[in-house]
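Retro notes
What went well: the complex prediction finally ran end to end.
Inputs used:
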Amino acid sequence: MPEEKEHGEFRKVDRKRGNESGFAFFRLVLRLMGMRHARNIAGIICFYYLLFDWRAVKKTLPYVKHAWPDAGFFSKLLKVYKLFYYQACMLLDRASNLCGLSGFDHFYINYDSFRELAEDSEEGVLLVGAHFGNWQLAVEGLKDIKCKVNIVMHEEQNEAVKKHLELNSRTSNINYIFTEGEMHGAFEIATALCNGEIVCMMGDRHYGADTIGVEFMGETAYFPYSSFVIAAQTGSPIISLFICKDWETERYYAYGSEPMRPVKQRKVPIEEWVKPWVEQYVKKLEEMAKKYPEQCFLFSDIWRKDS
Amino acid sequence: MTEDIDQIKRELKENIISALGLEDLSVDDIGDDDPLFGGELELDSLDAVEIVVVLQRKFGVNTKGLETRKEVFTSINTLAQFIIESRNG
């Protein structure tokens, strides 16, 4: 199993599930047999993971335990399976969109305030998302914005995805900022915001960044707070954005929040002044998780500080 | 030119102290060649954001492309040189 060095320690790295041949296989299935059959095949593969990939199941269980606290053992396993399956369906939607087989049928909620800020004002805007619904497909929706959009992400090790990202950067308004390295993309993020561009970050998983304890689903969970500090430093508004799917209509809904404007307080510890802003974001995330519990892909134990 | 660069260094130090809330330090406590990151100042990536904001908003220089020129953020001296370079176009 490959290993990489992180924070001075060696850790095991997950073998990537979606390799290039896997992507090619599903593209072919989508083209030849359509979405319904692709979903059936994905369902079988997800069942295989449920039976044989206990690491993945274990990572999913903390969320399942908090979302369905009264569920029994087998009911929890069924929820894990559903989470795997719905995420696979979201990835298929994205693949179908990238192949040009389907559009991104979506409906925005609170879009106007975001569009005005992004296109008509000179301020940079920070969009804070989560591993929720089809966050990958949200990137496609942002291509319509008349503004440069920067997606902050960890360096992609999956060659197939990497190729797609490179192509996306060359042919659209999308730019990727990778957080590897000493400064975690800080120069690029700050420059983009000062130049009035959009910066998208994830607000639900910390990947080693500093966190703050906030009440989430009945217990203290640990969320990264750097996006809120950056917003305060650059004077940029921050909007939370969640993309969910209504399975009946096969339509996506992009829920944007009203803009938040964190303000730095002098001589007050960061954790203290930033907390109410993180709480606002987490409250929205919890509302969405209650509304669409099977689209919350929090595959990490965020209720443990050292997760 | 010497006067200009000294003035810029002083303003840089004042702005960094104020932006980063380092009020227990004075301008004279920060040496022109002191390392900004990994040295006694112990600045981190969130402080780097603050320095970029200072460069853009207080000194009017565009920091686009600086991610590949990280040596600019080594010390007050290198930052001041960068500001002069940018202003001279």
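What we learned: DSSP finds ten helices and eleven strands in chain A.
What to try next: split runs per interface for comparison.
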